[in-house]
Design brief:
Two copies of one chain form a homodimer. Chain A contains nine helices and no strands. Chain A has helices spanning 5-24, 31-38, 42-49, 52-75, 82-95, 104-112, 118-143, 153-172, 179-195. The first copy, chain A, has 198 residues and is mainly α. Chains A and B meet through helix 6, helix 7, helix 8 and helix 9 of A and helix 6, helix 7, helix 8 and helix 9 of B.
Chain lengths: 198, 198
């Protein structure tokens, strides 16, 4: 792919902004503060992002691209069905260590949950997409005969989301070294239950 | 209980600060901003709280008192064992609607997870205490013969925490009207599994 210098700069600024937002919060990022961080002029950054609100949206879109590249795409190489669901989960466990301040979606969720704005819309879509991806993997596991036919895949996806999301919190706030092991044990129980005919 | 005017003022300022922190974040609260909100002088608030850092700690302590009063104490009236665990969970589901900005512990968790400070220590203790309370209820459920003897109560408490914590996120960010029903279904599956002999 041909990348112009402008696109290249834009991508590296967004990468720095994403790391910063994971630590300071999405709402804490200003074009001025980011300009200092990346050693560019404020007017130069305005030319790229036009407003703080647009910058927030672009940071989240960069985060989604990163999440897809680090979590979703590699997991799609796993065998269809249960193995792929497990691969998605395992990749997700590793995601919290990709950015210096942890999961940007968790950070932004707390900041934006009651603030209507364009960034909130992007965030909500991203989380619904992720839950749908988990539900889709479970649906394929039914087709492949790994999971029972009457499994409620929406409920299962919700529970996987909670195990991952809550586990991330236990790992980061409580620094519990068993957090990943507990998350895997919880998923294992869920998957065993999904296999069992009811 | 005899309450002096000073204690009364302090309690009502903390109550306002707690509501504000749930919406704006704990780190967003300043003594100046809070003074405007409650119509007191900045110097008057300094006399009560001495520093921003101490104010953050006092807000969290007020939140813990509120949590104990709204969630833990009423649930202790439920029958020992499984009914009490279910009552703790049900009260916790309602907790997210007590403050205008949702669960202050969830908000503060994301803000403080990688910021060492006195408020972080108080927050970590509070979350460990809550997980221990859930584990304790499960332990009593074993004694009462409701749950199987070889149940891993620490793992169960971790999973209940994730169901509640993740469900709170789904309710507040995704505005999923099924969030509470999904959380209850997840807990129900967990409890049925705790009963079954392995």
């Amino acid at each position: 792919m041909f990348v112009t210098k402008g696109e290249d700069t834009r991508a590296s600024v967004l990468s720095a902004a994403l790391s910063l937002a994971s630590e300071e919060g999405l709402l804490g990022i200003t074009i001025g503060g980011l300009a200092d961080k990346v050693g560019m002029s404020k007017s130069g950054l305005f030319a790229h992002f036009s407003s703080k609100e647009n910058l927030q949206v672009e940071i989240l879109k960069a985060a989604i691209d990163r999440f897809v590249a680090q979590v979703v795409t590699p997991a799609l190489k796993a065998k269809r069905g249960e193995p792929r669901l497990l691969a998605l989960f395992e990749r997700w466990l590793a995601w919290k260590d990709v950015l210096p301040g942890g999961c940007i979606f968790a950070v932004a969720s707390v900041e934006l949950d009651d603030k209507p704005c364009a960034a909130r819309d992007v965030l909500v879509e991203s989380q619904k997409d992720w839950i749908d991806t988990l539900a889709g993997a479970a649906r394929i596991a039914i087709e492949e005969g790994h999971f029972r036919k009457n499994l409620d895949v929406e409920q299962l996806a919700h529970e996987v989301y909670c195990i991952g999301y809550g586990g991330l919190q236990v790992a980061r706030l409580l620094r519990d070294p068993k957090a990943n092991a507990r998350a895997r044990a919880a998923l294992d129980r869920l998957v065993r239950d999904a296999r069992r005919p009811h």
